[in-house]
Specification:
heterodimer, A: MetI-like fold, B: mainly alpha, MetI-like fold, 21 helices, extended
Amino acid sequence: MENRGITFGYGFLSQESSFDVQFSLIEYDGSHSYFRAYLVGLLNTILVSVIGIIFATIIGVVVGIARLSSNYLIERTAAIYVEFFRNIPLLLQIFFWYFAALRALPLPEKAEPMFGVFFLTIKGFFIPAFIWNNLDIFIYSVIAAIIAIFFVRAYAKKKQENQGTQTPVLLISIGLLIILPLLSFLLGGVDASIEIPVIEQLSKTSFTFKGGLKLPPELISLALALSLYTATFIAECVRAGVQGVSKGQKEAAASIGLTPNQVLKLVVMPQALRIIIPPTTNQYLNLTKNSSLAAAIAYPDLVLVFAGTALMQTGRAIEIVSITMLTYLTLSITISIFMNWYNKKIAIKEK
Amino acid sequence: MNKLNFLSPDKNNLYAYLYSGISLLSLSILIVFLNSFFSLDLTNFLPGTISYFLPLIIGFIGLHLIRIEYSGIKFLDIINKNINTNNFNALLSLLIIFAVIKSLPPLLSWFIIDANFAGDSKDACSGSGACWAYIKTWFNRFMYGMYPNAEQWRINLSFIALAFLGGVGFFATEKFKKYLTLYYVVVYPVIAFLFIFFFISGGPIFFDFSYGIIAAVISIVIGFFIPSKFKMYYFLIIPITIYILLKYVFFYEELIELGKIQAFEWVETGAWGGLSLTFIVSFFCLIFCFPVGLFLSLGRRSDLPIIKYISIGFIEFWRGVPLITVLFMSSVMFPMFLPEDMFIDKLVRVIIAISLFEAAYVAEVIRGGLQALPRGQYDAAKSLGMGYWKMHIFVILPQALKLVIPGIANTFLALVKDTPLIFVVGLLEIVGMLNLAKTNPEWLGFAMEGYVFASIVFFIICYAMSKYSYNLEQKYKTER
């Protein structure tokens, strides 16, 4: 390394970055440091991973249950979906959505509004945004509601163990989640107004939307491809999990007089979850790592912003690649520690 | 005659229910069918929303009427059991049937009816459907990348020969069956490498490795005549001796001159591409990642702490980072650590990177199989006086590998699906070539056709692989 004239050090992180990023969650422009650019990339990676994980879980669970359906048509449809999307490389799917499917969308001036406020255009998805006053009080109220729900659940469990009576936890939780934020509106001075995107003419032929929230097409196609691809694997995990619970368990539960809902909630799901969670964790990790494919369609994630642009500008390959890899390692280990903790919590407590 | 109760159809008046139900169901399907294939709207005299949902409502009532258990009509029972068990299922079935009918005409017209097959320029594609002429024109590029047109027979020849040599195992007689593993693990990869080096890349006939290969071939041939008692020592000593003799003693000038002759035009790896590159990369990564993964998995379960923790660290590191950063590392960071005058080909670096990456996953899969074996197997093998290697080769691994066939197949599938990522280092396999073709000014606007084509190609490859692994799993399944 020495004879190539390469120096080593992390001092460059505080230098001015002097490049711009298309889409960022925090305030950022060329005058900020490389470290800030790193944060922008990291936050974008986390954003797309979280969106992907949420949608992949929803689609995966629905499809996984559909594959167990007694209805032939539903079972076949789900199977075709799984076989099809899982056998095509993720990169190809991302390219398909970004370069082929989303390019077929209308230009902003020709876009038809959905429900009057959503605009799906070639330049991105424009949705109304909330303008908040005293947002922090609202967030505190939501956090307070969540903490209260935990207490209610603990109390209900204790009560059931001691007296054998059930408390309607779900109703109380929903009530808390609605009432406390509502109170913050009435008493805490929280105020929210909705800003609807309005079309604006930039030049003679160029239009865009002003106001509201803009989801860039890169984010949409990446999240779409990631969730559709990972959902197929999650669906298989769910199917294997539910099939793994033996029939005798359901029959035994039914024979002691539990209702079908209770059988599902108290007997089948706790056992199925034990089989489902470890492989699903792996899929979440894969999704997070696969989100680095964003670099291929120029979504400004960690790899593109930091290992791409910043590396080209500074030429500090070793430092930047090592930081990037360490970041992904940390993300993976964080998710796996959390899921291991959850897995341990629901595991069979053997004596 | 019994009274008809339309809310709960039963077996009395079976035919009354049946005829009314089937006619309603067919009516609803007919409405949707005419609407989608011939754009005829039978129900346009009704207000918009009702007309939109009418087929669904009619079909739903129809399915409700024919839901009669144990009717005695075989066909009806099958329908009821499979798509019509309750209201919710009936609704979902109808929705799926209607969605299929609705989506058939646009798909058919895009794929076949309105598509253009003939022609060799953009002007030929005037229809509203797909432009398959685009795929036809670019087909060679998608298959062979930038490889010179006149030389493409070399790739074809190599692949056909390798496929043939790979299929030898199916025709082997009982006598040769025991050598198959050796053939596939050692001989076949070497032959594959030679094919790719001589034919696809066009390397000089004699290169440095050739001494080693000649040594190996000679020693294997002689090895057949050696009593099995000494075989192990023989194979440890003789090849190295022959290699050293060849290289430093029989140092003929002619041999060196021969080594500089090139039979074919040299095609550098940067020009390789398309589907053939996908095959080459996946093939070599498959071959390399399996043994590395095997040793890692054994290392992770080793009793020696150093080996154990090195294996764990290695596996967890590769599993924690995305492949794209590994490729970044191999392309920008790795060359910095090499001596000044040393240069490793891009393709070789990529193959090493992907192999190490996938080896970590293979290791975890195999570890699952090793852990699933009961302790008794280990104890039994040890009690027969087997050492570590003997125990693993003859008792543990055959059983463990059998257990993890599905997992290994999944890892290999993931590997094949990961090959498009080599675009990061500038190698263009089929997806990379598509992106290149897409930006050609004479062929703008056909991204969809290209991606659909590549999706079909990958689907066929991966689906065939998964079916093959399923067959393998069934073949080696033993009752435990």
